[in-house]
Amino acid sequence: MKCIVCADRNWGIGRNGELLVRIPRDMKMFREETYGKVIVMGRKTLESFPNGLPLEGRENVVLTTKEDYTARDAVIVHSVDELHEVLEGVDPDLVYCIGGGSIYELLLDECDTALVTRLENALDADTFFPNLEKKKNWKLVEESEEQTFFDTIYTFQTWKKV
Hints:
The chain is of the alpha/beta class. Helices cover 20% and strands 36% of the residues. It has one domain (2-161): Dihydrofolate Reductase, subunit A (3-Layer(aba) Sandwich). The strands form two sheets. Strands 1, 4, 5, 6, 7, 8, 10, 11 and 12 form a nine-stranded mixed sheet that branches. A three-stranded antiparallel sheet has the order 3-2-9, with no helix packed on it. Strand 2 and strand 3 (18-19) form a beta hairpin.
């Protein structure tokens, strides 16, 4: 499994249920990377999408503790064991964890690659991605040249579990 995220300098990823920034090149990379694949997310992440609907062209799997939760065109699971059952037989390279914070924390150990759009600035976040710089078993293996979107400076990073 891979995870894909846009994080600020302090690994902040969101505030009040919304992304910190919307960068067109990041959104394009996310779309190209996940289209036709399986995306795993939490309930709040699904509900943050336009009209609370799953993303088209992907198999959407929602991990939630809400037993009565339903969502059209999404597979709902209530535990990591149930998630494993749903993903049985699926190539792990075709599965992406897309958030939010508690789902990244829960599933990071199951991931071998993290695709991070890394913002240079620290923004006002209330939700965070695990700090890979402090994890001995993760290594930055690739980083793009600096990109800019208005006053936002960022890079595309690839982290690998070692």
